[in-house]
Automatic annotation (TrEMBL):
Cofactor descriptive note: Binds 2 magnesium ions per tetramer.
E.C. no: 6.1.1.20
Protein name as it appears in the record: Phenylalanine--tRNA ligase beta subunit
Taxonomic lineage from the root: Bacteria, Deltaproteobacteria, Bradymonadales, Microvenatoraceae, Microvenator
Binding site residues for Mg(2+): 453, 459, 462-463
Species this chain originates from: Microvenator marinus
Swiss-Prot/TrEMBL cofactor(s): Mg(2+)
Localization, UniProt: Cytoplasm
C-alpha cells in the first residue's frame, strides 16, 4: 500500500508534524513501512531557456542556453520540441537525482557536445507516469528555486506492508486514521470532495439473486459524462503511488479505491442490455475481460450480468464489451460489497490478482457502501462538470450495525501487564474510531464496520498494546496459565505440572537426539499422490489447496519424512536418521511419532553399519519400554502398499495396532533418489501415552549376578519371531518356577543357508535369568532351560 504525505494531509492536519517520526511510529504500531521516497530534490531548480540552437551533430536534438539565476548560462542538450525561448522549465543540475529516475545527473557529452544537466518533464520528477515534452512552468516562479518546492509539489511517498487482517489500512483514509492517533489530531469524518446528494429517481433495474455473495450493491446512473484526460492534480496524485492515468472516469475509480478503500467499476450504459443481475455464473459461460483474455466461468463464480450474459466478474475484473471508451457519454457506476471467500476463490482460480480483488478478499467496509457511492458521484461531478446523476439504486440485504464487544480492565492487566486506568484504555481505542461506554471497570466497545478483524475482547487488547506502544511493554510475571494445570484445592492458585506423557515425550526426544537422530517439522499437508501408511486412506483433495503438493491434510508423518529425505539426498547426504512428533488428521485427530533411517549408522565396534529392519524394530521397543510391557509383533493382515511386501510388521497392544515398522517400497524410495533401502516406523503416540499414570519410577538393579544362556532355534522361515515372544509370555504366566527367575530375552542373530535346511532359518536368542533375592543355583537354571526347550519343541521348533 502506497500513500503520499499530501494525500494523508487531506484527511488529517499534518502542519508542523515531523513526518519521519510519524513513519517510525507507524512501524512500531504494526503498519510496517517498507520504503520511503522523497518527491523532492534541491538540485532540480527553476530555469529559464534564453536561447535554443540546433545541435550540430544531431537533427533530433537542440542545445538550450539556460539561466538558473546564478549569473551564468548553462549549455544543456534536449530532445523535446514543446519549449521556446523564455519558457521556465525544471533543470536538473549535476548531482541531482530526479524522483522519477534511477540514476544521478552529471555533466557529460551528448552527441559530442557537453551537456551541463537535464531539462525535465513531469515524468522524470515522478509527477506523471508518462509525459510528452518538457514541463513548462508558471512564468512568475523565481529562478534557482527548487522546482518542486516552487510549485508546492514536494511530497513524501510511503510504502506500507500490511498483514491480511488489516484491510482498513488499504486506503489513505485508513492510514490517516492511524496517523491521527499518533499525532493526536482528529481525521475528517468524510472525504473533502464528499457531498451528500439525494437522487429522486432510481437507476436501471437491478436484481440480486445471490445475497450471500453480494449483500450490498449501489448502482448510480450518470449521464452527460465527457471522457477525457483527468485533471493534473488527479494524474499527479495517482502518479505519486505509481498508478498510470487512463482517463478521467477510470482515474476516478482508481482514486476512490486508494482514497477510501472502495473498489468501483464503471460500465458504458449504452453497451449494457436491459437490467443488471448479480448471480452465479452458468455452465459454459465465458467473459472477455478488460485484459482482452477469454475467461471460462464456473458455477461458483459470482458475476454481474445483463440480458445477454456476464459483463463483469464480481470483485475481480470488468468485461471488455461494456468498457468505458472515448465515445462514452452515460455510465453505470457500481459500488458494492462482495463476499471475500467468493472473490478469493475466483481470483485464484483464474489467476487474476487485481487491486480490487486484493481488497475484497480481505474485507472492505461493508457499512459505507452508499457513502462511498455518493463520494464517487461528487468527485465525478467536479472533474466532469457536464455530468449529472440521473438515478441511484441501492439493495441492502442486511443492515450493517457496529459490533458490540465487551472488554474488562482485568483482561488488559493480565495479558499485557499494564496498570492502565479504564479512561486511558477508552481514549486509546477512541483515537482509532473504536468508541466505547464505560461501565465501572468494563468497556462496551462499538466496533465499526471498517474493522472486520476485531471480533473478540483479546482483539481489543491487541489494539491497546499497539496504541500504547509495544516498545513500552515491560517484562512482568505473567498471570496467564500456561501448559497443563493441576489445582490442589478449590480457590487456590494454579500450578504448572507437566503430565507424564509430556515428560515421556521429552525423554523420548532426548533419547533419539542422543542416538544421532535429527528432529524435523513437516507441513500438515502433503500431495495426494504420496504413499498410504499406518491407518491412512485415500483422502479427499482440498478444494482450495495452496499448491498441488499441499493438497491433502496429512494422515501420516511418513510422507513429510520422505520429502525431507529427498531434499537431503539432493544435497549429497549418504546417511540419515530422522524423527518427528506431529499430529495426523484421521478420526480421531491424534499425535504420532514418525521415524526414518537411511544409509548406515555409526557402531562403536564395527564403524559404519547399514541400517536394517531389526535396528528400527529394536528402537521402537526401546523407546516404548516402560510405557507398554505387553505389546506383540505380527505380520500385517493387510499388506501396506507403500512398504516392501516382505519387510513390514505391526506392533499391537491388546489387539490394537499401535505402530508400524517396515522398509519403504523400492519403487517409492527411488522417487526420492534413495540408493539403498529406507526404513520407517510410525507409532500412535497419543494412544501409547494415553493410559500413563505416573512417570516411570527407578527400580534398583539386583545385587545378585545374572546368568545368560544362548540358544539357536530352527523353525520355518515364515514363522515370525513374535511366536517365541508369545511362548515366553505363556511360560512366565504358566510356570511359576520359570517366571521367578526369568528377566529378559533378546534376539542377536538370524541365519538362513547351509547347513540349515531350505525353507527354514535359525534364530539365536539370549535368555537372562536373575533373582533380586539370592544367587541362582544350577538346579534352578537347568530347570528354567528345560522348561524353555520343552516349550519350543511343543511348538515344532528344534534346537540347532
Amino acid at each position: 500500500m502506497k500513500v503520499a504525505r499530501t494525500w494523508l494531509n487531506d484527511w488529517v492536519d499534518l502542519k508542523g508534524v515531523d513526518f519521519k517520526s510519524v513513519i517510525e511510529q507507524l512501524s512500531l504500531r504494526g503498519l510496517e513501512v517498507a520504503s520511503l521516497k522523497e518527491l523532492a530534490d534541491d538540485h532540480v531548480v527553476v530555469g529559464r531557456i534564453d536561447e535554443i540552437v540546433d545541435h550540430p551533430n544531431s537533427d533530433k536534438l537542440v542545445i538550450c542556453k539556460v539561466d538558473v539565476g546564478d549569473g551564468r548560462l548553462r549549455q544543456i542538450g534536449c530532445g523535446a520540441k514543446n519549449m521556446k525561448a523564455g519558457d521556465l522549465v525544471p533543470v536538473a543540475l549535476p548531482g541531482a537525482k530526479p524522483p522519477g529516475l534511477d540514476f544521478e545527473i552529471s555533466s557529460r557529452p551528448l552527441a559530442g557536445i557537453e551537456s551541463e544537466g537535464m531539462l525535465c518533464a513531469e515524468e522524470e520528477l515522478g509527477l506523471e507516469t508518462s509525459s510528452e515534452g518538457l514541463w513548462i512552468l508558471n512564468p512568475d516562479l523565481p529562478l534557482g528555486m527548487p522546482a518542486l518546492k516552487a510549485t508546492e509539489l514536494e511530497d513524501t511517498v510511503v510504502e506500507i506492508e500490511l498483514t491480511p487482517n488489516r484491510p482498513d489500512a488499504l486506503s489513505a483514509r485508513g492510514v490517516a486514521r492511524e496517523v491521527g492517533a499518533i499525532v493526536g489530531r482528529p481525521i475528517r469524518e468524510s472525504a473533502p470532495y464528499f457531498e451528500a446528494a439525494e437522487v429522486g429517481a432510481t437507476a436501471r433495474r437491478l436484481v440480486i439473486e445471490d445475497a450471500e455473495g453480494c449483500p450490498n450493491y449501489v448502482l448510480s446512473e450518470i449521464s452527460g459524462v465527457k471522457v477525457e484526460e483527468a485533471p493534473a492534480w488527479l494524474r499527479r496524485r495517482l502518479a505519486s503511488i505509481g498508478t498510470r492515468s487512463i482517463n478521467n472516469v477510470v482515474d476516478l475509480t482508481n482514486y476512490i479505491l486508494m482514497d477510501l478503500g472502495q473498489p468501483l467499476h464503471a460500465f458504458d450504459a449504452a453497451k449494457v442490455s436491459g437490467s443488471l443481475c448479480v448471480r452465479r455464473a452458468k455452465v459454459g459461460e465465458t467473459l472477455e475481460g478488460i485484459d482482452h483474455k477469454i475467461h471460462k466461468l464456473i458455477e461458483d463464480d459470482l458475476v454481474i450480468a445483463d440480458e445477454n450474459g456476464p459483463v463483469a466478474i464480481a470483485g475481480v475484473m470488468g468485461g471488455a464489451a461494456t468498457e468505458v471508451s472515448e465515445t462514452t457519454t452515460d455510465i453505470l457506476l457500481e459500488c458494492a460489497y462482495f463476499d471475500p471467500t467468493t472473490v478469493r476463490k475466483t481470483a485464484r482460480r483464474l489467476g487474476l490478482h487485481t487491486e480490487s480483488s486484493h481488497r475484497f478478499e480481505r474485507g472492505i467496509d461493508r457499512g459505507q457502501t452508499l457513502e462511498h457511492a455518493m463520494a464517487a458521484e461528487a468527485l465525478l461531478r467536479q472533474i466532469s462538470p457536464s455530468c449529472a446523476v440521473k438515478g441511484r439504486t441501492q439493495i441492502c440485504a442486511k443492515e450493517v450495525k457496529p459490533l458490540a464487544v465487551e472488554l474488562t480492565l482485568d483482561l488488559v492487566h493480565r495479558t499485557l501487564g499494564l496498570e492502565l486506568e479504564i479512561s486511558e484504555v477508552s481514549s486509546l481505542l477512541a483515537s482509532i474510531g473504536l468508541h466505547s461506554k464505560v461501565d465501572g471497570l468494563r468497556l462496551e466497545v462499538s466496533v465499526p464496520s471498517f474493522r472486520p478483524d476485531i471480533e473478540r475482547p483479546i482483539d481489543l487488547v491487541e489494539e491497546v498494546a499497539r496504541l500504547h506502544g509495544f516498545d513500552k511493554l515491560l517484562p512482568t510475571r505473567s498471570e496467564v496459565q500456561m501448559g497443563y494445570v493441576h489445582r490442589l484445592k478449590p480457590g487456590k492458585s494454579a500450578t504448572i505440572v507437566p503430565k507424564a506423557k509430556l515428560a515421556r515425550e521429552r525423554t523420548t526426544r532426548s533419547v533419539l537426539l542422543a542416538k544421532g537422530f535429527a528432529e524435523t517439522l513437516g507441513y500438515s499437508f502433503h500431495g495426494a499422490e504420496q504413499g498410504v501408511f499406518l491407518g491412512a486412506s485415500k483422502s479427499d483433495v482440498l478444494a482450495n489447496a495452496l499448491a498441488p503438493e499441499l493438497s491433502v491434510m496429512r494422515q501420516s508423518l511418513i510422507p513429510s519424512l520422505l520429502k525431507t529425505l529427498g531434499v537431503n539426498i539432493a544435497q549429497r547426504a549418504e546417511s540419515l536418521a530422522l524423527f518427528e512428533f506431529g499430529r495426523v488428521y484421521l478420526e480421531p485427530e491424534r499425535q504420532r511419532l514418525g521415524i526414518l533411517v537411511y544409509g548406515a549408522r555409526q557402531s562403536h565396534f564395527s564403524g559404519q553399519v547399514p541400517w536394517d529392519f531389526f535396528d528400527l524394530k529394536g528402537l521402537v521397543q526401546e523407546i516404548t519400554h516402560g510405557l507398554v510391557d505387553h505389546g506383540e509383533w505380527r505380520v500385517p493382515t493387510q499388506v501396506h502398499e507403500s512398504l516392501h511386501p516382505g519387510v513390514q510388521a505391526e506392533w499391537l497392544v491388546d489387539d490394537k495396532v499401535m505402530g508400524l515398522v517396515g522398509q519403504v517400497h523400492p519403487t517409492l524410495a527411488s522417487q526420492y533418489d534413495a540408493k539403498g533401502p529406507v526404513f520407517v516406523a510410525e507409532l500412535e503416540w497419543s494412544w501409547i501415552a494415553e493410559g500413563l499414570g505416573d512417570v516411570p519410577q527407578h527400580r534398583p538393579i539386583s545385587k545378585f549376578p545374572a546368568v545368560s544362556r544362548d540358544f539357536a532355534i530352527i523353525g520355518l522361515t515364515e514363522r515370525p519371531f513374535s511366536e517365541i515372544e508369545e511362548l515366553i509370555g505363556e511360560l512366565r504366566q504358566g510356570d511359576p518356577a520359570f517366571g521367578a527367575v526369568f528377566q529378559e530375552m533378546s534376539l542377536f542373530d538370524v541365519y538362513s543357508g547351509a547347513p540349515i535346511p531350505e525353507g527354514k532359518r535359525s534364530l539365536a536368542v539370549t535368555l537372562t535369568y536373575r533373582s533380586s533375592e539370592r544367587t541362582l543355583t544350577d538346579v534352578e537354571i537347568q530347570a528354567a532351560d528345560q522348561a524353555f526347550l520343552g516349550a519350543i519343541h511343543s511348538r515344532g521348533y528344534e534346537l540347532r
